[in-house]
Amino acid sequence: MGTWDIRSSEHRFQTSSSCVSASGPAARPACACEQGVAMILSTALFVLALLLEPLPAYTPPDLAEVAILRARMEPIQHLSFAARYEYCGYLGRDGDDQPVFTEIIRGHHNGCTPVIPQAGVKLIASLHTHGAYDPTVPAEFPTALDMRSDHDEGVNGYIATPGGRLWYIDSRAMLAVQICGLACLPQDPDFRPGDDGVIRKRLSFAQLLALESWE
Question: Where in this chain does the record put each DUF4329 domain (predicted)?
Answer without folding.
Answer: 70-181
